[in-house]
Write a structure and sequence with these properties.
219 residues, alpha+beta, Tetrahydropterin Synthase, Chain A, 2 domains, 6 helices, 8 strands, elongated
């Protein structure tokens, strides 16, 4: 057997081994958390379900909500458990795209940044990054006042909400809207955004589910 023939044979055997290994892997459906729709967002292959746990997947709010205006919001989920061929995830953080952030910032405006560590009602800890932009330059005293508004709102809102609801408030823009309404009383504001968040640790407290009062029976 010539060296060339032997080399071709080895390559053929190696390619078959690669194909065989890949064919033995199972494809797992990655599901978004319930507070983000609970739908399939991706698939991932693995030979063992234990190898799937801990993997991260990135998507956008546009893909989750079909809202084109949210295409700049990147969401990261992390796989927490696998049942059958279903991989369940939890929220790990979000971030605006660099292009979108760059388009927001113009000359002769004041950029006010705030980075805060917050704790949810059920003990989850997150780090949030907030940006406020003014239509024209403002005094340092105004900057300080607006940053204080940011801090007060995110800390107080976090301690009242469980992790899932807090995350939705952050990503949907609800928290930013509340900051905007109070901050504009200090100085005119162009916009406020919670442009980045990161989960430092997941909930540590199991809260009792709220029981809605029964409706009175109709006569």
């Amino acid at each position: 057997m010539s060296k060339r023939t032997a080399g071709r044979k080895r390559k053929g055997q190696e390619s078959r081994r690669v194909v065989d290994k890949f064919s033995l892997k199972t494809w797992y459906k990655i599901i978004a958390p319930e507070n983000f729709g609970g739908e399939q967002i991706a698939e991932t292959p693995a030979a063992d379900p234990d190898m799937v746990v801990g993997r991260t997947v990135q998507t956008t709010m546009m893909d989750l909500t079909n809202d084109y205006k949210k295409m700049h919001v990147k969401i990261t989920f992390k796989i927490k458990k696998v049942k059958g061929d279903i991989a369940y995830t939890h929220f790990r953080g979000h971030e605006y795209t660099r292009d979108y952030l760059r388009s927001m910032i113009r000359r002769r405006r004041t950029r006010i940044d705030g980075i805060f560590n917050i704790t949810s009602k059920d003990g989850a800890r997150l780090r949030v990054s907030i940006i406020a932009l003014t239509p024209f330059r403002c005094k340092s005293s105004h900057e300080k006042g607006i940053r204080k508004v940011m801090q007060n709102i995110v800390l107080k809102r976090a301690e009242k909400l469980p992790f899932d609801k807090l995350v939705r408030d952050i990503v949907s823009g609800k928290m930013a809207t509340e900051i905007y309404k109070k901050a504009k009383k200090i100085h005119p504001i162009q916009n406020v955004d919670v442009w980045k968040s990161r989960v430092l640790n997941l909930p540590t407290i199991k809260l009792e589910e709220e029981v809605k009062p029964a409706e009175p029976a109709k006569a």
